[in-house]
Amino acid sequence: MREIGIGVIGGGYMGKAHSVAMAAVGAVFNTELRPRLEMICAQTATSAERYRRAYGFRRATADWRELVADPKVEAVVIASPQETHRAIAEAAFALRKPVLCEKPLGATVDDSHAMVAAAEASGAVNMVGFNYIRTPASQFARALLQAGEIGEITWFRGEHTEDFDANGSRPATWRNFGAANGTMGDLAPHMINAALALVGPIARLSADIVTVHGKRPGTEGRAVNDDIGQFMCRFANGAMGHLSFSRVSQGRKMGYAYEITGTKGAIRFDQEDQNALWVYKADDPPALRGFRKILTGPEHPDYLPFCQGPGHGTGYQDQIIIEAKDFLQAIAEGKSRWPTFRDGMEVNRIIAAAWASAASGAWVDL
Prior knowledge:
Blueprint: E1 2-9, H1 13-29, E2 33-41, H2 45-55, E3 59-61, H3 64-69, E4 75-78, H4 82-94, E5 99-102, H5 109-122, E6 126-129, H6 136-146, E7 153-161, H7 183-186, H8 188-198, E8 202-210, E9 228-235, E10 240-246, E11 255-262, E12 265-270, E13 276-281, E14 292-295, H9 316-333, H10 341-360, E15 364-365
Parallel strand pairs: 1-2, 1-4, 2-3, 4-5, 5-6, 7-10
Antiparallel strand pairs: 7-11, 8-9, 8-15, 9-10, 11-12, 12-13, 13-14
């Protein structure tokens, strides 16, 4: 085992999640590389110092350039706003430092293209933070699909729906302005990534995107971003699909859910019950033919390091710890792991196609 100095840029919601994950991952997974919380960066020196004390970093800074350039920072985690991702990643790759970047990869498709080019030119390990697809249940679903357990996939329905912005009388916040902060920039990337992971490339789509609460307090004279988006699609393998996204879906707290139909069965999953997968097999005896609830346990991917008891479950933070494990293993092996920056760029490309389709009212080929 050897230490690796970790620098985290951003100390808020995701900055804390990544910091906690890096502090725990060595003990949970007995990783070859053991993270050393070397430096954290925030917008002000005061907040950076507060995060340093809270999370256990050795040093703090208000300048991400200082963090990236520091020789004791050997790998960089980007957990700052999307508009900052490109410049930080390019600087880190210029020094051939591995980068784990939160989703979405870039604020624009052009940013994502530039980040992929910098990553691949440097040869450094790169990964995008799509955590939800890493639950043991969803990893097991991918394994079942790849093994052909439900046959040829014919249909995919996925959603990422929440209600944190459902109250139209709530005053506007930063989330209500800028394309990168709307539903298509915030929630859609996760389910699009899931669709790509579970079914494969999307060939064409037809989208519709709307703003529901355009006149909440504090929006006067300012353009408000999107609340709901959806698209029909055809996957490259011929499967049909429908994906929907909403931050105004009353009653939904973590509605990251999908159902997949194949020629021999079907799979259902809902993140609000993240430790269960529902599987239907068409060749079961007629009297037993129905969806079977499978509780995750030690036999499922990345579960046992957390708990020896089946059905005891894993949580949100554990997803980030699994992500940290994958990132460290990629660095140890010197080879990037899925989802790479190129995979993240594909998500951005699909979102751009959805916006183009919504504007034109026509199908868009990818």
